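Hi Y.,

Following your request, here is the sequence exactly as I used it, all 450 residues.
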Amino acid sequence: MPVADKVTTPAPAARAGRNARAAEARRRRLIAAAFLLPALVLLGALVVHPIGYSIYRSFFDRPGTGFVGGDNYREILSDPTIRTALQNTALWVVLAPTTATALGLIFAVLTERIRWGTAFKLLVFMPMAISMLAAGIIFRLVYDHDPDRGVANAVWVGVHDTFAESSAFPKARPGRDSPLTDAGGGAFVTRDPVRAGTPVLLPLVGVAPEALPEGTRTAKTAATEPGKVTGTAWQDFTRGGGGATNTVDPAEQAFAGMRIEAVKDGRVVDTATARADGTFTLSAKADGARLRLPAANFREAYAGVQWLGPALVTPSVIAAYVWMWAGFAMVLIGAGLASVPRELLEAARVDGASEWQVFRRITVPLLAPVLAVVLVTLVINVMKVFDLVFVIAPGAVQDDANVLALQLYRTSFGTDADPGLGSAIAVLLLVLVVPVMLVNIRRLRKEGSR
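Below is the corresponding structure, written out as tokens. Let me know if you'd prefer a different format.
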């Protein structure tokens, strides 16, 4: 039989099959395009068009009528407020993602070892359910300078006063014609030496009655004791008026707990503490000495730390951000930790590795892809942070806490709005975010190709 007779499929039939397959492929592409079209329209309207318009607008002046070229971008580099925003944004990128990721890693590893780990994870993750605005209001109160309102300063002042308690008489001072005079450094001293057998009067004014120590009683004149120096330290003020100056009147309050020192030739020869009625007694060593009320009696109450002052406002806001996002990092890292082969960890422990060595040489390297995801996600998120800074930082220090996203808002929509400069800041922010996004996309493709 000739070879040609063995061909059973006619050429027209083959071409028809290929045409049918091509038509089916075109139909599938059209169906896919039809489904993708709404998303592409939204992407173009909500992303591509705003980006394009921002780039275009950044080359025009404030009204948008005059082309200024790169002047807006040059102003970004010359404006001190925007430079501060750039520096603070760099500080945010370095500190916030690394701190949140490190805490998330620690929490994820430690919660595997405790029975109530699930409850702990719930508590740590709970701030993620709070909006940035609500978190900002919470931390604005936490950082309040008044220890009676701000939790941070209440704790700080409590710890400080445990080791260096403030005085109950911070505003006390000698009155008119007082036998006391300023000794320098916040202390007061009697004008004349004191003598045994003659009661000494140490009148002061300036302390609110409600601020006096608990247990304070009405002052009384000290009794005479042979060979000893006695006296009274009290508030020489009668509520409602009346009373005689430099005289212990019946309604006047004592300075209980006031410390008194007897000083001779620059040396302290004896000390005493005023009783609840203000009286005190010194030994015969005090005869001929001058009595000094040391500055410790009048130490101002410790007011705490200015968390929202110019020096600490940025770290304080970063701490609020970490409080919110450490739970996010913990959950993702915990999910990655669940996939770590347990036999590797157990084999390392059997071989004598300590827990720190297991964590550093096995756990962390195996979690490196997850840690990279968390870190890059937080870096992108941090570059856009706005509401926390806007709400927490008081108006007086917003320039010190400024970041690019906040500066973008203030420049574009503030009282002296400049849309051209604001568009330039938006483009700069996009340029800074794009490399991080590209790194993330490249990493995701590499992970998908494995």
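The radius of gyration is 38 Å.

Thanks again,
Q.
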